[in-house]
Amino acid sequence: MAAEQSTRPPIRWHIAVFLAPAVLIYTAIMILPLFNTLKLALYTDAQNAQVFIGLDNFRLLFGDERWSEQFWNALGNNVWFFIIHMLVQNPIGILLAALLSSPRLRMRAFYRTAIFIPTILSFVIAGFAWKLILSPLWGVAPNLLDFVGLKGLFQPWLGKEAYALTTLALISVWQFVGIPMMLIYAALLSIPDELLEAAECDGVTGMAQFWKIKLPLVLPAIGIISILTFVGNFNAFDLIYSTQGALAGPDFSTDILGTFLYRTFFGFQLQLGDPNLGAAIATAMFLIILIGVSIYLFGIQRRLRRYQF
Amino acid sequence: MTFKHMKLALLAATMLGSAGTAMAEDVTLTIESWRNDDLPIWQEKLIPAFEASHPGIKVKFAPSAPTEYNAVLNSKLEAGTAGDLITCRPFDASLSLYNKGQLVAIQDLPNMKNFGDVAKAAWSTDDGSATFCVPMASVIHGFIYNAEIFEELGLEAPKTVDAFFALLDKIKEDGSYIPMAMGAKDQWEAATMGYTNIGPNYWKGEEGRLALIKGEQKLTDEDWVEPFRQLAKWAPYLGDGYEAQAYPDSQNLFTLGRAAIFPAGSWEISIFNEQADFKMGAFPPPVQKEGDTCYISDHTDIGIGMNAKGPNQEAAKTFLNWVGSAEFASLYANSLPGFFSLSNETVEMEDPLAKEFVSWRESCKSTIRPAHQILSRGTPNLWNEMWNVSANVLRGAQTPEEAGETLQKGLASWYEPQKQ
Amino acid sequence: MNKARHSPVHSIAAHAILIAYTMIALFPVVVIVINAFKSRKAIFRAPLALPDKDSFSLIGFETVLQQGDFLLYFQNSLIVTVVSLFLVLLFGAMAAFALSEYRFRGNTLMGLYLALGIMIPIRLGTVAILQMMVASGLVNTRTALILVYTAQGLPLAIFILSEFMRQVSDDLKNAGRIDGLSEYRIFFRLVLPLVRPAMATVAVFTMIPIWNDLWFPLILAPAEETKTITLGAQVFIGQFVTNWNAVLAALSLAILPVLILYLIFSRQLIRGITSGAVK
């Protein structure tokens, strides 16, 4: 170290080489266009010319109850959407991954593939399948419930304010549970056998082994999944748009930030698109997500203990 | 626009009429549209007819999904990659394109004389000085019924509201069929086929619509709340779980013969003709008392205009002029029964159900949907709100009075003539 | 493999849970596939019934094959997806390696910058992207789509891969350095093979949104020659009538290639794990 103090360390060109292609493409095609759009939040359209108005769009968005009510409604719904994912999707994902990684399991490849299939589907097809299944008319869900003697439980879920959002969140969980499953599965498989064998020698097996040894080791992966779920949920849009329409019925009970943003930005029916206000909403969403990700990056990720194998 | 394209367009224009001598490269016009349902009709009937009489111009119909259309079109227009011809949504969506200089004023096309002011209103500036799309079609609302079920139960198309509910009661008592196929899930069904379908009989069509624009009537007035009350009374006659019934569900309920009546837009005619294997009839929205004047929602729905930055301006004008012709009106109305021509030229139609619908234009007074002109320019958007509250009323989540108040409060919050 | 004691009770319970969940996962898919082979009436009359003599119909597939060159659309989808995937994985892994391996000023900031892309939907930049493609003459080319999808896939890939790369043993890398391997060789020879499971996972995540995307093909490459399969299928979703036969047929057909790609990567995933040299 002492020697290095006199001469400046050589420029490590390889770092630049490793970063350059990704940074260039990403900056040119994603960041610049998005920045251009977000900039619109500070402008307004006056006779086809963009006029700078400072923070007025944000004042409108948060100060005028016609907009702020929609925003808070969407945010609240979004939080609930996220909570369902964290409570249902991630535990199921971990459970499935743990089962799949258990030694000597037969038909492992089959299960893994089958459970992942919904994730491959497009929203159109997932939306159609569930609309058909849950439809009160075509009888799939009512008949299935009848089969287990619970027909009384059937409700037109997608048409009831109290249930629609939760139902959609569960459909989304159904579709995306493959992602946490795969990530945790990969993390579990990379735990060295020696470690587990050592644990077994100490008599730590089965459930205890899972809780005491494996789970702490895959915590970084769970961290990633949580943050990906957070980001994904707060950007979600397609599923609700394709099953409930742009007005996110019934009575806006399934409106989340994504649908609110698209409706405002691109317009809908007689409502003209307003890129300026839309950009303001996008900026607000971006800040919410940025805060979440920063908490993770600076607060949580650094405290997670990582083990190198 | 490149010089080459310009030259081609000029060439093509000068060669019009001199069929047979066309040797230069053809000009190709691209039509942007949300009507991907119509793709086969354009490809098989309309475009061949045009190309046959206009050598040197080729036409390509390039539709996108209806839910994406406005967003896609606006992006393409901004960036300059949109097609030459633009299918126009009615009123403000197209007006804003014209104001941005993306659509061209076309009132001077010779065939625009074939359209009356009402037809042109949906695609004209507020003062009527400029028109930017050629009106293509309107849709008429009413009720379509399964004639075989009516015959089986000995029913007749109702004229008055009382007869209408008596009829629904009879079907319900019989129990073999769902009286009416309508759901609350896709909100627009409740708004367009519910509220604005039966409403004109209460707010007296154009009279009420214009009074609302002038600020002389309010959405909390009896004329505007009563249709909501009627709508609320429909609920017991709909299928189980109609709260979650989507529009395709309703269509299928009816075409599979499980429901007797379908509150409809005339566009259903061609779909039902293809999918239902029973005889159908239609009746206009029932009036309050025997002998009342009847009003129908005869809504201007589709027009077509040209991209101001399109490379083939002259050819595009030629095409638009053709769309204004009697030939197109007849071709279109007969290929798509249920999309009625807005042309003053008399159009002979063959489809009996379409004839029934269009005959109401003689016996009843026509109006358009009340939220479309001027009233949906602010926030909250009146038409979006009508979707939402109509579905709420149908689901029983809002009373008719509350629905009227919500609408009035929203409108009065930004529309000057409605502010006290 | 380890010699875990193995009680049959555990094994049965594990299978029971996995089978139950597999049924939940597959049931809607089965609904789609069986209905793709039925007539429209039969779809709604009895959505759960298997296609039989009366209800069996290939009308959906026929409509699809008539309405455009679906083989070409497949090819376009495949080229766009595979090339974008390759670029995302290569560039993403390189950048992730730089972020996780080296300490340099602005490392965390660069990490955050590269993660911004997952926080704002790229659709909002549509007009600017389209203008850029118009200016560079790339409208209606597969290149335009590949560029957009590469940019779109990078943030997530970098985010996940850098996390996994932090777990690669420093001793191994340092041993390589002592043997005189260049940083590039360390990356390509030592690190990449070790993160193959993660690469396979990222590949799967990246591939799906690209394959299923409707928006950018519609805006950037709507021409007949460059249409993707998902864009081809949307022709059947109409304003008032949706041709469910055709939509289901087109989308069922479209699932197949992704499924095959997925199977390839998932096999790679297993091989990557079992051949891991460090254990």
From TrEMBL, chain A:
Chief location of this protein?
membrane
- Residue ranges constituting the ABC transmembrane type-1 domain according to the UniProt record: 75-298
The protein's topology relative to the membrane is: Multi-pass membrane protein
Q: Which UniProt keywords apply?
A: Cell membrane, Membrane, Transmembrane, Transmembrane helix, Transport
Keyword Oxidoreductase belongs to the record: no
An example of a Pfam family matching this protein is BPD_transp_1
Any one GO CC term of the record? plasma membrane
* Segments crossing the lipid bilayer: 12-35, 79-101, 113-133, 162-188, 217-237, 277-299
One GO biological process from the UniProt record?
transmembrane transport
UniProt-annotated location(s)? Cell membrane
Provide the family line: Belongs to the binding-protein-dependent transport system permease family.
Q: What is this protein called?
A: Binding-protein-dependent transport system inner membrane protein
The species this protein belongs to is Nitratireductor indicus C115
From TrEMBL, chain B:
Record keyword Nucleotide-binding present: no
Query: The organism sits in which domain of life?
Result: Bacteria
Keywords (A to Z) from UniProt: Periplasm, Signal, Sugar transport, Transport
**One of the GO BP terms on file:** transmembrane transport
InterPro entries named in the record: Bact_solute-bd_prot1, SBP, SBP_1_CS
Q: Where in the cell is it found?
A: Periplasm
**Signal sequence residues:** 1-24
Give the CC-aspect GO terms: periplasmic space
Keyword Cell division in annotation = no
Where primarily located? periplasm
What is the annotated role of this protein in its UniProt record? Part of a binding-protein-dependent transport system for a sugar.
Q: Tell me the PANTHER family matching this sequence.
A: ARABINOSE-BINDING PROTEIN-RELATED, BINDING PROTEIN COMPONENT OF ABC SUGAR TRANSPORTER-RELATED
Q: Which family does it belong to?
A: Belongs to the bacterial solute-binding protein 1 family.
State the name under which the record lists this protein: Probable sugar-binding periplasmic protein
Source organism per UniProt: Nitratireductor indicus C115
Automatic annotation (TrEMBL), chain C:
Task: Please name the PANTHER family in this protein's record.
Answer: DIACETYLCHITOBIOSE UPTAKE SYSTEM PERMEASE PROTEIN NGCG, MALTOSE TRANSPORT SYSTEM PERMEASE-RELATED
Annotated compartments? Cell membrane
Instruction: Show where the ABC transmembrane type-1 domain sits.
Output: 74-265
Q: Which Pfam families match?
A: BPD_transp_1 (PF00528)
The entry's keywords: Cell membrane, Membrane, Transmembrane, Transmembrane helix, Transport
The family database entries (InterPro entries) matched by this protein are listed as: BP-dep_ABC_trans_perm, MetI-like, MetI-like_sf
Highest rank taxon of the organism: Bacteria
Q: Where are the transmembrane segments?
A: 12-37, 78-99, 111-134, 146-165, 186-211, 246-265
Please give the name of this protein. Answer: Sugar ABC transporter permease
Name a biological process GO annotation: transmembrane transport
Q: Could you say which protein family the record assigns here? A: Belongs to the binding-protein-dependent transport system permease family.
